[in-house]
Design goal:
4-stranded parallel β-sheet; 6 domains; 838 residues; Immunoglobulin-like
């Protein structure tokens, strides 16, 4: 891969191209070309591509047995055989691979089956269909964890768990555009807004109850615009960061989204992509510019657990990758398909660094000391771990800085202080939990409650008489009795943020009203004013109008229209919601009491406060726990005698010291020389481009006769090997590899076991032919044109344009230039034409 992959691999959240396994369907040229394109854009090493063989059944559905035998088992086998088990967390399926997995009536998505295994349906009791079930085994323990995926994979996965996504579309060009939108979003820190839309469709708009919490957290963190709207379609919006809705059909125009955007709809068949269902699919979001989307592949019923929580936008604000955002926001993803660019991370903060005193092509031998200098983006994002990769494969961990025992973390709230001493063997998660407990130990005086989630602590003020701006917060970190400070805590804000959420309580009616039944609602305001309403179902008016009549009285009462009043809304057959007219805690003490005839409301009166969303209305702040150092000056020994001689790429990967683990990649080419063994690799046709239809011929020559094997490698791994030969020739049809950029290198093993890796040759295989300019010069005339090596070009001429052109010769250039010359200067004017021979 030296000097071959031109990629956006500086930024990634907890992953980069090094951590992705790309799966292509070898029976689909589109799948292969898209996979090659993704590898190039994301710097995916050639050994990280897997060709799926034997599948010709289309892109819709396969059985669980086919999924396992054709995809899962080969995938797991190749990860182990290629020594990638330490690094693969993401699996990307490259179009023309089925998106449904079926068995005995149960249907899962292919991405979910790769994520945590196939989950069979179980009955939900006496009502509901099997596909509407929520089996316990389908619960996703990774959801809402704000944890590193490698450290917290789903606990119901029977094999390796993967953050699996698919990139697919109606055309190859559209699929490539999804890749581009994902890559282009990295580290851009967009200022555009993401929208959470409560639609007019009551069957599909249920996620609105989750909007406020997500909006509040993004506001506390800052630097991200997330707002709630009452809207049925994104049609007409342009340049937005995201859109979450619930609607059967909608329209989204091109350029609706900026790069890196996430968007999805809660509807039954958003993931049924290539079969008409009468519903708008997730592809509409991708064609409008989103980098990723989600939809279910079978009727799921409107269970919120089966659809992304709006918290995925908060996770994006933290810097997590697109696939991490989605899987963390899904409690039961088994029926849901994730489509998009998995690594896209618009808010990932990249460090900076370089190899020290190691110019490109440096010659290394024996045990050599190498040095890195890496600097974090800022003090709030220290660097915790650095790994070393050789040729794209994990080699060793250079450093991993844990929270240092005896470091002292301090949190002060309104002048009250909580102290926490980091114990031995601590992790970010245990430190966050311990620090939250310390904050709760002073809650009786601070009136602040703390709860830990992963590496983050949420602080909530329970004092309804004090605004958030009157609650100062300070966090500090000190070495304590430890020799170094590697544990840190920081607050999002210097004070609490007041909520813009309105408190509410649900008025629930037990039974359907009959003729003459009655209801009475009493509302007690915070100033003690009491207002009472009643309604009687006489003459009988139906359940909806009966409840509506009570709501209308609430909303027309003058006392309750004051700022300290309430509004009644969200009518259902079972009741409605009472919402305060003032956001935050101020309205929460409002009380209500509901009584009614025994047939409608059996039992004692129902009392309620506006506290159903208490956590969302309390002033809030965040604490973030990190570990590491802001500046890393690392020196480490590399024993090159254990590695193959020849040409290599060293890659140092630095991980930011939170659970986001944003990666920074530092690549450098080196040459290792410890033995006399060497070899050369040549390829015909030459040049940097070659025709896809050409047969590529690779020649390897070794400088010794004591050769055990010669093996040729490129995209997808080994292309072939020979034994006991000093020279080897491999003929590889370009169509086997597919259109795209490919690296080629050979590994020679001597009889003594020593190895040599040749210099990498890079070729771009080109399937189509763009129009090209034809030049003519000289006497006799010579034609020249920019060519694709290995492609056949036909030269035509005529002496009279009235006559037809006649074929003169077929030319197959061996490099990037084509030419043909007349044997002698023509006696009259002659006209020429050159075109491809296919």
């Amino acid at each position: 891969m030296i000097g071959c992959m031109v990629a956006a691999h500086g930024v990634g959240a907890a992953g980069s191209g090094l951590n992705v396994l790309v799966v292509v369907n070898s029976n689909s040229t589109n799948s292969v070309e898209l996979g090659n394109y993704y590898c190039e854009r994301r710097g995916v090493p050639p050994q990280n591509l897997l060709r799926l063989g034997g599948w010709t059944g289309g892109n819709l559905s396969w059985t669980r047995s086919q999924f396992q035998s054709l995809l899962l088992v080969p995938l797991l086998d190749q990860i182990q055989a290629r020594h990638l088990d330490h690094q693969i967390d993401f699996v990307l399926l490259s179009m023309d691979i089925p998106y449904q997995v079926t068995e005995a009536g149960s249907v899962n998505s292919t991405t979910a089956a790769l994520f945590y295994g196939f989950k069979s349906d179980t009955a939900r009791g006496i009502t509901g269909t099997l596909s509407c079930s929520l089996p316990a085994a389908a619960s996703n323990s990774y959801a809402f964890s704000e944890a590193s995926f490698r450290d917290s994979p789903p606990d119901t996965a029977a094999t390796n768990a993967f953050l699996a996504m698919m990139i697919t579309a109606d055309s190859l060009a559209q699929a490539k555009a999804v890749v581009d939108q994902g890559v282009a979003g990295d580290g851009t820190f967009p200022t555009q807004t993401a929208y959470l839309a409560k639609t007019s469709d009551p069957l599909r708009n249920g996620r609105y109850v989750l909007f406020d919490d997500a909006i509040f957290d993004t506001a506390v963190r800052g630097g991200y615009s997330l707002v709630r709207v009452d809207q049925d379609s994104p049609d007409g919006l342009t340049g937005i960061l995201g859109y979450q809705t619930g609607l059967m059909n909608f329209v989204a125009q091109p350029n609706t989204f900026v790069p890196g955007a996430m968007a999805d709809s809660l509807t039954s068949f958003g993931g049924v992509l290539f079969t008409p269902t009468g519903q708008t699919t997730l592809l509409a979001f991708l064609y409008a510019g989103a980098a990723g989307s989600y939809g279910t592949v079978v009727e799921p019923c409107p269970d919120l657990e089966k659809f992304p929580s709006p918290r995925d936008y908060f996770y994006q604000a933290r810097g997590f990758s697109l696939s991490e955002c989605y899987y963390q926001s899904l409690q039961s993803p088994r029926q849901g398909l994730l489509v998009g660019e998995p690594l896209s991370a618009p808010f990932a903060r990249r460090a900076s660094g370089s190899w020290q005193n190691l110019p490109p092509g440096s010659l290394l031998s024996g045990t050599t000391n190498l040095t890195l200098q890496i600097t974090a983006d800022d003090a709030g994002n220290p660097l915790q771990q650095v790994d070393l990769f050789l040729g794209g494969t994990f080699l060793q961990t250079i450093t991993n800085i844990a929270p240092a025992p005896s470091n002292l973390l301090t949190v002060s709230i309104s002048g009250r202080t909580a102290n926490y001493v980091v114990p031995p063997n601590a992790t970010l998660q245990t430190v966050a939990a311990g620090l939250a407990a310390a904050v709760n130990s002073i809650s009786n005086v601070s009136q602040v409650l703390a709860s830990a989630t992963g590496d983050r602590i949420t602080l909530r003020s329970a004092n309804s008489f004090v605004s958030g701006s009157q609650v100062p917060v300070a966090a500090d970190s000190a070495a304590g009795s430890a020799p170094a400070l590697t544990s840190f805590v920081a607050a999002s804000r210097a004070d609490f943020l007041d909520s813009v959420v309105f408190p509410y309580g649900d008025v629930v009616i037990s039974n359907v009203a009959g003729a003459g039944d009655w209801l009475q609602l009493t509302v007690i305001k915070t100033n003690g004013v009491t207002v009472t309403f009643s309604t009687t179902n006489s003459p009988p008016m139906g359940q909806g109008p009966f409840v509506q009549s009570l709501m209308d009285q609430v909303n027309s009462n003058a006392d309750l229209q004051m700022p300290d009043g309430v509004v009644a809304q969200d009518l259902t057959a079972n009741g409605f919601t009472l919402q305060g007219r003032i956001p935050g805690l101020a309205s929460s003490p409002i009380q209500a009491s509901l009584t009614g005839s025994s047939t409608v409301l059996p039992g004692p009166p129902i009392s309620l406060y506006l506290d159903a969303n208490l956590a969302d209305v309390q002033p809030r702040d965040h604490l973030y726990v990190t570990a590491g150092l802001t500046n890393l000056a690392l020196s480490f020994a590399l024993d090159t005698t254990t590695l193959a001689d020849g040409y290599h790429q060293l890659t140092a990967v630095a991980y930011e010291g939170s659970h986001v683990r944003t990666q920074t990649r530092l690549d450098q080419s080196v040459v290792i020389h410890n033995t006399p063994l060497s070899a050369t690799l040549s390829v015909a046709p030459g040049g940097t481009n070659a025709a896809l239809e050409a047969t590529l011929v690779f020649s390897i020559t070794v400088n010794t006769s004591a050769v055990a094997s010669i093996e040729l490698f490129s995209t997808g791994g080994s292309l072939g090997s020979v034994t006991n030969q000093v020279q080897a020739t491999f003929s590889i049809p370009g169509a086997v590899l597919g259109a795209g950029l490919h690296p080629f290198y050979a590994v020679v093993t001597s009889s003594s076991g020593a190895q040599y890796r040749t210099e990498t040759k890079c070729l771009r295989l080109i399937s189509g032919q763009a129009p090209f300019a034809l030049a003519i010069a000289g006497n006799p005339p010579t034609l020249s044109w920019p060519a694709v090596a290995g492609r056949a070009y036909e030269v035509f001429s005529t002496d009279d344009l009235i006559d037809s052109f006649k074929l003169r010769e077929t030319v197959v250039p061996t490099n990037d230039a084509g030419w043909w010359s007349e044997g002698a200067y023509p006696a009259t004017n002659r006209f020429y034409r050159v075109g491809t021979a296919w």
